[in-house]
Amino acid sequence: MKKVLLAAAMATLFSSQAAQAQDAAPTVKPEHEVSFNAALASDYRYRGISQTRLQQALQGGADYVNNPSGLYVGAWASTIKWTKDAGGGGSVEVDLYAGKRGSLTSDISYDVGVLAYVYPSNGLAVSANTTEVYGQLGYGPAYVKYSHATTNLFGFANSKNSGYLDLGANIDIDSGLVLNLHAGHQQVKNNSISAYTDWKIGVTKDFGILSASLSVIGTNAGEIAYASPVNGKFLGKTSFVAMVSKTF
């Protein structure tokens, strides 16, 4: 039941930043590249569902890319509330990932890899820890991505082989301004009541010193299935999410 991104939201923001960086980068890139990122979000939405009970989150990560091969590894972390709210423990999510990206043709890009979502000390009856493999194809600013769970999905029992389909585009509007569009569908194996569709419309602006984004995020998730155990609020409701971030 994770993110967002603004992964959900966060993922879109950093992918658009990466696209801008590639456009501005010199023709010859260094063999090894290391970058870091930090962000403050008004809510951590992942796949449209709040991970922080509709409250703010601190986030950050690090990435390494080997440009000649397209191989990469990285780590990213965020504060969360949902594991503790669900009767377990922990207040942090740590994502560890590795993969390979490149081009199939001059117009079509690809990205394949594996992502482990780790929730230290979550202590839930069905562990929140989740591993997914993913594959993505891109064409210009548009992409289609599929993620497949090789373990139970975010604490759902008997949910191995769940899948998430992600369609989106990050479109340059003006200098440093990007339109972010996303629609996704989460299928939860053997838990059909928990399946849902999410969407996002937002803009990201690179100010040089930092980047900022503002998005409208919503879902058609079941209000009972995705209600906070603490206060009963619907964690997939349509709302604005703001973020400021820095990549260095």
Quick rundown:
This protein is mainly beta and 248 residues long. It has two helices and 14 strands. 8% of the residues lie in helices and 51% in strands.
Report the total helices: 2
What's the overall geometry?
globular
Poorly predicted runs: 1-25
Cα-atom radius of gyration: 17 Å
Structural class: mainly beta
Q: Total number of β-strand segments? A: 14
Percent in strands: over 45%
Largest sheet geometry? 12 strands, antiparallel, barrel
Strand order of the largest sheet: 1-4-5-6-7-8-9-10-11-12-13-14
| Elements, N to C (H/E) | HEEEEEHEEEEEEEEE
Overall pLDDT score: 91
N- and C-termini, Cα separation: 30 Å
- Level of helix content? under 10%
Overview of the molecule:
With 248 residues, the chain is mainly beta. The chain contains 2 helices and 14 strands, in the order H-E-E-E-E-E-H-E-E-E-E-E-E-E-E-E. The protein has helices spanning 10-24, 82-85, and strands at 32-41, 45-46, 49-50, 57-66, 71-79, 92-103, 108-118, 130-139, 142-149, 163-174, 177-187, 196-206, 211-219, 239-247. The strands form 2 sheets. A 12-stranded antiparallel beta barrel has the order 1-4-5-6-7-8-9-10-11-12-13-14. A hairpin with a 2-residue loop joins strand 10 and strand 11. The two termini are 30 Å apart.
